Every structure is written in C-alpha cells, then in structure tokens.
Amino acid sequence: MSELAVVFGGSRGIGRAVSQLLAARGYRVAVVSRNLEAAQAAMATLPGAGHVALHCDVSKEQEVQEVFQSIQKTCGSLQYLINAAGINRDRLLLRTGQEDMVSVLHTNLLGPMLTCRAALRNMLTRQSGAIVNIGSVVGQKGNAGQCVYSASKAGLEGFTRSLAKEVASRNIRVNLLAPGFIRTDMTAGLQEEVLCGGVALGRFGEPEEVARAVLFLLQAPYVTGQVLLVDGGLRLAT
Ligand code: NAP
Is the pLDDT score of 238 beyond 80? Predict the structure, then answer.
C-alpha cells in the first residue's frame, strides 16, 4: 500500500495544492479541515485511490485526537504530516481583541503542536516519518498589522527546531516552510500590484510552487530542523 500523508488545511489554498501534488506522486492523502464538505470536494479531485476527507478543528485537542484515531482505523499508519491549516486576523495590535489573538495562536501554533504530538505517537512506533509545518516569512521579518500572526509563525519556527532535535534520533524529520505572498483565499484582499514591488521575483507565488517545496522537504532524507523560505525573494528586501 502507498504511503499516507495527512494534510491539515487540505481543503483550500496551499494545503489543497500539496494534497494534489502528493496524490499525483502516488501517495494516499487524508485531507483535513473544519469544513467537511470542502475537504470532501478537494479529495474528490485527487488522482489515485485510497484518499479520505475528514473534519477537524486543529485548535481543539479532542477533535485532533479523534481525527488521528479515525485515520489510524481507516487508513493505517501515517508517514507524513503537513500542517497547512492557518488563519490571519490582520490589524494593528491596538485594535486586536483577545478573542482574535487566541484564535490565531490556537490555530497557527497550538494546532500544529497538537497534530505533531498525535502524529508522533504513530511515527515513533515505526521509527520513521517527516513533518512539514507551514510558517510564514512574516515570522522572521515581522510586519505592521500582523503582530499576532507573526508571533504565531515565529513560535512555530522555534517549535519546529526543538521538535526536530527531540525526534531526530528516531529517524523523524521536522522542517518548516515559510511562504511569502501566495495567491490563495488568504491573500485575496491584498493589492498584488503594490505588494509585489517588494518581491525580488516581482510576483505573488502560486500554491503549486509551495507544494513542490513541501514535497522536497518530505523527501529530503538528510534535512531536518530547517526553515525553507519560498517567498520569491521577499525576505531579501528587508
Ligand atoms: P487558505 O487558502 O485560507 O486555506 C486555509 C486552510 O486552513 C483551509 O483549508 C482551511 O479550511 C484550513 N483551516 C483554517 N483554520 C482551521 C482550523 N482551525 N482547523 C482546521 N483547518 C483549518 O490559506 P493558505 O493561504 O492556503 O494558507 C495555508 C498556510 O500557509 C497557513 O498556515 C498560512 O498562515 C500560511 N501562509 C500563507 C501565505 C499566503 O500568502 N497565502 C503566506 C505565508 C504563510 P477550513 O476553513 O475548512 O477549516
């Protein structure tokens, strides 16, 4: 049976493109998001067989536990975990309420902690596996109006490096991919013509371009604890 990849946030955007590429390369994919219908619709477009679609809110411990139990039961062991679920609530800190702070931190930072912990229980038994967390270039360079979001992504970097050290001896690799501006629902409201002036390559990226880098990290046997920027050179400008 082909190897299984679990993609949180697989219903849309970057996670959906990752699911497509992995399925095209012969992996089985578990597409996970809060909206089950959207996850099912994304799954229905995947090439190959053996895929599943599941509901889970990554910020809820109970739901994360249950979704991994369900995956184990229906699909067996997992080899790969991709944490692409994420939200933003961009506004100046002075205008950000605690509810939004908690939502962003719980989805973008607590969520991957919960999914990694659950996946590791399975990977440790097999003594193999690879995890890719999706961070953001903003986690490194900061951005006005994105204090909470950038904090969540900077935290995810520290988490990724530490976890990589914890599990390397068990042949499990953990890396972080930090995208710049990628054309998805998350960036739909942004003025691309204005913003791409700061991008060395002069354009927004496509989800499929991020997916190719995720595949690289999943398959690179001697790479762990790293941050790979997929930002068209945005970081170079700051
Ligand atoms: P997107 O198009 O808005 O998709 C977000 C995905 O996350 C959806 O599948 C969504 O599905 C899922 N999701 C959101 N909250 C969730 C939760 N609590 N539990 C489970 N699933 C949840 O966003 P995207 O642009 O693909 O972003 C993917 C990741 O890349 C995020 O972590 C984002 O921060 C990061 N990123 C994006 C960009 C960019 O320019 N697009 C740049 C840097 C980093 P449901 O709504 O159905 O749950």
Answer: no
Whole-angstrom Cα Rg for the chain: 17
Where in the sequence numbering do the catalytic residues fall? Answer: 149
Ligand 1 pocket list (CB less than 6 A): 8-9, 11-15, 33-35, 38, 56-59, 84-87, 107-108, 134, 136, 179, 181-182, 184-187
- pLDDT reported for residue 225: 98
**What are φ and ψ of residue 176, in 5° steps?**
-125, 135
Average pLDDT score, the chain: 97
**Among 222, 54, 235, residue whose Cα is nearest residue 135:** 235
* pTM for this predicted structure: 0.98
DSSP 8-47: ETTTSHHHHHHHHHHHHTT-EEEEEES-HHHHHHHHHT-S
What's the CA gap between 56 and 85, in Å, rounded? 10
Does the structure show a pLDDT above 90 at 178? yes
Compute the residue count for the chain.
Answer: 238
To which H or E segment does residue 129 belong?
strand 129-134
Which residues fall within 8 angstroms of residue 127, CB to CB, at 6 or more apart?
170, 171, 172
Angle at 21 between CA 17 and CA 26, to 5 degrees: 145
Closest CA to 17 of 186, 226, 146: 186
| 1 pLDDT more than 90 | no
Can you say how many angstroms the Cα of residue 236 is from the centroid of all Cα atoms in its chain? 23
Closest CA to 213 of 225, 203, 205: 205
**Separation of alpha carbons 213 and 210, rounded Å:** 5
